[in-house]
Amino acid sequence: MLFAAMLVNALHAALENGEQSFGFEVVETVPVDDMLETENRWLEEHHGKPYCYNVARYADAPWLGRNHTDESKAKMSVAQKGKKHRLGQKSSPEHRSRMSASMKGLKKSPEHAEKIRQRMIGTSYAKGRIVSEAQRDIFRRPVVEVTTGNRFVGITEAAAHFGLHRANVSRTIRNGGLLKRGPNAGLHFQYAQNMI
Question: What is the pTM for the complete model shown?
Answer without folding.
Answer: 0.34
